[in-house]
Design a protein that fits this description.
The protein has 181 residues and is an alpha/beta fold. It has six helices and seven strands. The chain has one domain: Pyruvate-ferredoxin oxidoreductase, PFOR, domain III (Pyruvate-ferredoxin Oxidoreductase, domain 3, 3-Layer(aba) Sandwich). The longest helix has 14 residues.
Length: 181
Amino acid sequence: MKEEILISGFGGQGVLSMGKILVYSGMMQGQEVSWLPSYGPEQRGGTANVTVILSDERISSPILNDYDTVIVLNQPSLEKFESKVKPGGTLIFDSNGFRKFPTRTDINVYRIDATEYAFANNASKTLNMIILGGLLKIRPIVKVENVLKGLKKSLPERHHHLLPQNEEAIKVGMDLIQKYN
């Protein structure tokens, strides 16, 4: 098994953290992993993306031209990365603020209204976990119990009291995701 993933959005949406949690989860399952972030000098509001590779075999390079799964959380990310999904691959998008929607018919496209749900339910700090839950529903590449262990490892100890909220957010994401095409 080898899964090559790109997650992209605005800084502050938890893009890099989501990638890091996936990597920790893969490590706990004995997988080879790669985490390659890319972001501008802006702390919040600028664009950010991360390439994550989970594999049962050695990973030759973290640099990729196309991906099995792409998650986009804003319009610029969709415009830049929709073409980078391998034919037959998966694109997940959070439609909040989108003017144009995915158009490819040779890939599986899923919509998750995570931002809308997060703000309506005062859960904006768990937005990335909602999206991660959606990913794991359609691509169960890591076990949820390992995600929770990875989350505990990546969160500062002072935030460990938020672990139950994050676990609930994963479940919500699994319920929210829906086929788009």
